[in-house]
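Ticket #4471: structure output looks truncated?

Reporter: J.K.
Steps to reproduce: submitted the chain below (204 residues) through the standard prediction queue, then opened the result file.
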Amino acid sequence: MINQNSKAYYIWQKIIKILGVIALIGSFALVFWLYKLGILNDSNALKDFVHHYRVWGPLIFIVIQIIQIVFPVIPGGITTVAGFLIFGPIAGFMYNYIGIIIGSVILFLLVKAYGRQFILLFVDEKTFYRYECRLETSGYEKLFIFCMLSPISPADVMVMVTGLTDMSLRRFTTIILVTKPISIIGYSYLFIFGKGFISWFLYR
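Returned output as attached by the reporter:
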């Protein structure tokens, strides 16, 4: 890992921040475009897509989910909802679950190996220190569990910060295996209840 105080490290921080902004804008633009075309509302088109890419589709999606966890420049909520839309509730849940669990474990291990300098590539110092100070509290593990349960919490940041603790890989994996199904399903419900508002906003 590049030294945290080096010029190269600073440049990488800037590059990753720029990629994050581009990914965020591009993700919302893509969703808006697909919605305007009616693809997101056409179940037959989605079924044809799944049938045509029966093997590669799920594999590519799982890899994308792993990447967006390990290198969080793609909004995770968007890819999670996309999984439900493309593959349906059951298969979508499974592919989301597999990708998120694998990605979270890899991210946890990367922080264990490289520490704060890895986190600060993706998180600004102010945000990082706000979460880091909670490591010293006795109820940190409960906070971590709550964030893994919630579909609207900064899950990636919490995974990275937790990598700085003495929590074992087994304990970490057990927690996310149990809690992640709830947050993943929560994303789908947020989309279902928010879909009506989005339709009203786009077509009013």
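Triage note (M.O.): checked the attachment and the full token line is present. Residues 65 and 79 are 7 Å apart (CA to CA).
Status: closed, working as intended.
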